[in-house]
Amino acid sequence: MNISVLGTGVVGQTISGKLAQSGHKVMVGTRDVGRTLAHTEPGPYGLPAFSVWQKQYPGIRLGSFADSARYGELVINATNGAGSLEALTLASASNLNGKILIDISNPLDFSQGMPPTLSICNSDSLGEQIQRAFPELKVVKTLNTVTASLMVDPRQLADGEHHIFVSGNDAKAKAQVFSWLMSWFGWKHIIDLGDITTARGVEMYLPIWLRLWGALGTGVFNIQVVK
Amino acid sequence: MNISVLGTGVVGQTISGKLAQSGHKVMVGTRDVGRTLAHTEPGPYGLPAFSVWQKQYPGIRLGSFADSARYGELVINATNGAGSLEALTLASASNLNGKILIDISNPLDFSQGMPPTLSICNSDSLGEQIQRAFPELKVVKTLNTVTASLMVDPRQLADGEHHIFVSGNDAKAKAQVFSWLMSWFGWKHIIDLGDITTARGVEMYLPIWLRLWGALGTGVFNIQVVK
């Protein structure tokens, strides 16, 4: 399957790498290919520069947001939340319409220091904003509640006995995403929260996630819903 | 121990009943004692009227917010979030100062319909607003992330293998609350998230809690933090 992964950060690298290892053809999308490739220094938290990282994955291509979106039968939004709407606008509705978008982004606002606040919340969400901006796109919000390494390898933790969530308006698209999350990444427990307005819930979970990260001293944790 | 429980709704009834059963002396606080006692019809979700409910607990007294706060060596805020600051103002700083306040309230705003939004969030929280309004009160936010019956009986679910959180500025007060939560209610797993600003995290957890309630078809669930 040809997959578009928008974003070259830790989520984009982690998702792309895993998909490529599983035999998918991936084109990562970025704002400016030349600038992305020009960076060679590691980023925050030791994140390798894309150009360095890419050497491990010679099959992964890099293109503009538009090239990547055009290439993908599925599009994955792994850009940071502050830039997601602009990235998708650059990707262009004509390359997105009719496709499924797995939206992993979080609307984190670091402008007031740490911990970040949310740039959108409460009566709206980034997932909804994306769905409104691209009504022909089938937005499925998921995976934004766990750290990148867990997104693609949930069984590294408690043999996968913990949960993620999906939110979206299109039932078929959600069923398809369920199946991909299980078969590609090994997720065992996925809860359908409902339509895209339920993205508010998973995005507003970030503040407690950030505080748990502090309290637990690791980002490699998740929640199991017990009932 | 003399305990003040502010609020006559489901949380106030559940907490008060459990404390009374355990031999504590409880005075419930309300805005208007006469009006509270005059109601005899069940409220939403079949909640018994306070006057009917109180017959099961003849030892539980009812007083004004101020009477109750004066009476309690510990004060528990079980009012609904929209009225909490006013209730505490009526309780009066002079009756509260120096005491621990266990704050269970959630700033839910039902004015725009269901599901509710939050009246305070993101860069502030109700827990912080209470702490700022009453600087001499030792506010410990906890228990607001579970349904009332679980607050006082966590072991009804998965033998208590799930988590609650505490947020507060006073380390000794938090340690005391830890001990009460364990010995009074049977909580096994309590995570200290940090100072009172971490109340934002547990209050902003409500939107996903509400959606999980819908998806699971029960409010009797909780999260286990897996790491």
Q: Quote the average pLDDT of chain A.
A: 97
Number of helices of chain A: 11
End-to-end distance of chain A: 37 Å
User: What is the SS-derived class of chain A?
Assistant: alpha/beta
Share in helix of chain A? 25-40%
Strand order of the largest sheet of chain A: 3-2-1-4-5-8-9-10
Oligomerization state of this entry? Answer: homodimer
Regions of chain A with pLDDT < 50 over 5+ consecutive residues? none
User: What overall form of chain A do the CA principal axes indicate?
Assistant: globular
Order of helices and strands of chain A: EHEHHEHEHHEEEHEHEHEHHE
Radius of gyration of chain A: 16 Å
Strand content of chain A: 15-25%
State the total count of DSSP E strands of chain A.
Answer: 11
Largest interface: A-B, 39 and 39 residues
Q: Give a quick account of the main beta sheet of chain A: strands, pairing sense, barrel closure.
A: 8 strands, mixed
Overview of this structure, please?
Two copies of one chain form a homodimer. Chain A has an eight-stranded mixed beta sheet, sandwiched between helices. In chain A, a hairpin with a 7-residue loop joins strand 6 (108-109) and strand 7. In chain A, helix 4 (65-71) packs across helix 5 (81-91) and helix 5 runs parallel beside helix 7. Chain A has helices at 10-21, 33-38, 50-53, 65-71, 81-91, 93-96, 126-133, 148-152, 171-185, 199-204, 206-216, and strands at 2-6, 25-30, 61-64, 74-77, 100-103, 108-109, 117-118, 138-142, 163-168, 189-194, 222-226. Helix content of chain A is 39%, strand content 22%. The longest helix of chain A has 15 residues, at 171-185. Chains A and B meet through strand 7, strand 10, helix 10, helix 11 and strand 11 of A and strand 7, strand 10, helix 10, helix 11 and strand 11 of B.
